[in-house]
Amino acid sequence: VCQLLGISKRTLQHYRDTSVLPFAQIGHKCYYKREDVERLLCLKSDKTTNTTKR
């Protein structure tokens, strides 16, 4: 998930802590729904394409 989103493990943990990316935890592993990861990817790409150049 970190590689796909281009973020660090710590950032992914922050996303979990702040409910940016929903997850399910079974034992010591965290699982993410594909739709949630894809939604975050779309949001991330929208932010980079909507920047105005000065």
From TrEMBL:
Annotated Pfam families: HTH_17
Lineage, highest ranks first: Bacteria, Pseudomonadati, Bacteroidota, Bacteroidia, Bacteroidales
Name this polypeptide is given: Helix-turn-helix domain-containing protein
Domain Helix-turn-helix as annotated: residue spans: 1-41
InterPro entries named in the record: DNA-bd_dom_put_sf, HTH_17
Alphabetical list of PANTHER family matching this protein: HELIX-TURN-HELIX DOMAIN-CONTAINING PROTEIN, PTHR34585
Superkingdom of origin: Bacteria
Source organism per UniProt: Tannerella sp. oral taxon BU063 isolate Cell 1/3
